[in-house]
Amino acid sequence: MQSENKTFHGRRAFRIAAGIILTVIVAGFVVYRFAGDWSRIAEEELRFEYWWLAAALGMVFVNNLVHAGGWYMVLRCMGRRVPARRALPVFFISQLSRNVPGSVWNYAGMAYLGKRIGIDRKDTLSAAMIVLLCGLVSSVIIFAVSPVFSIGDGVAALALLTVPVGLILLHPRIFFSILNAGLKLIKKQPVRVSLRYHHLLCVLLAEGATWLVSGWIFRCVLLSFFGTAPDVFTLAGIFAISWCVGFMVLPVPGGLGVREAMLALLLGQYGIEPAVAVAASLVTRLLQLIVESALAAAGGVLWRRHRLSGLQAGQMSNGPPEQGKGVSLIEEVPPCEIRKVPTVEKDTSNVVNRSV
Fold it and tell me: What total number of domains does the chain contain?
């Protein structure tokens, strides 16, 4: 048992170290290319309009709420009747750990916090995985139907085939078979989730809407300091597929560097310099971090308030109230007195007389 624990901790430490090293290498390469390409941009093309950044910040806030709402909706559909004021802090607090190398720590934190409020770890992770897979499917669909493929050959028709394929994969029998196969690969028990097809379609539509909002966010960031940007639908498709590719590189937190490389490659077809694409992506990451930190702080306040209310309720139910500090909600019942029941002696004299 001890050797297995040492092996597990050794592998985890190796993955963390490999993720940190890979993150440093990728980030260093991005900064090097960013510094080299930025000098080629004319100064007259640059500007700073803070209201575009303010609009982007508000839409990032809306996107995070939609993600949290999708996760909570899946929990409700699974039959977990947990109040939103208790469940949403679990989601918001755990999202801060997405920036840690490994790309799994937010799910581990979500499972731990969910257990603290009475949600089984398997249910918490199942809801998170359902939202994640719907997000991956919707990102590919949004990229396929975006104007990026508006070219006059068969590539556009081939890309549109991903729409019916994605809708077929979303059927519960196929969807949960894929989910359980993935859980089996990481040596986890399969899950049984009673979700219908229209539930998964609602999650897919919500995730698709977040990609459209992400297109608006990226456009606002570009307009805040560059002045020109492609249309929203094009940016939504480019940002969605860049996020999808960055997510596949698990050791790198948030696909740092990989997403920037994809954005620079695809936005270069629309006259956007690689340095501008990288700068816009880094600003978007910064806005996301600000919103996540604010929501995690608000979630921490709700979490602490819930714990304090639970402790106070426990004290009121377990201990007698002190004088001058209120009245207990539980009525005190005096201890029962055990009384000895007197025995009644039967008069047998009449019986004796009759027998005589």
Answer: 1
314 domain residue, yes or no: no
Hey, what are 168's tokens?
């077929």
What DSSP designation does 65 have?
A: H
Q: Could you tell me the two tokens for 149?
A: 């493929």
Single pTM value for the model: 0.73
What is the Cα–Cα distance from 254 to 257, expressed in whole angstroms? 9
Which residues form the domain of 262? 10-38+50-307
What residue type is assigned to position 192 of the chain? R
Q: What's CA 86's distance to the chain center, in Å?
A: 15
Contacts (Cβ under 8 Å, ≥6 apart) of 56? 216, 217, 220, 221, 224, 284, 287
Q: Between the CA of residue 268 and those of 63, 135, 175, 232, what are the distances in Å? A: 26, 25, 36, 16
What's phi and psi for 236, nearest 5 deg?
A: -65, -45
Whether residue 334 is contained in a domain is answered as: no
- Tell which residue, 112, 129, 138, 116, has the closest CA to residue 75: 129
Question: For residue range 96-132, what is the model confidence (pLDDT) as tens digits?
Answer: 877 666 567 788 888 888 888 888 888 888 888 889 8
pLDDT digits (tens, 9 = 90+) for 198-257: 888 999 999 999 999 999 999 999 998 877 888 999 999 999 988 888 887 766 666 777
CA dihedral 259, 260, 263, 266 (to 10 degrees): -100
CA dist list (Å): 260 to 24, 163, 200, 255, 263: 14, 26, 30, 8, 5
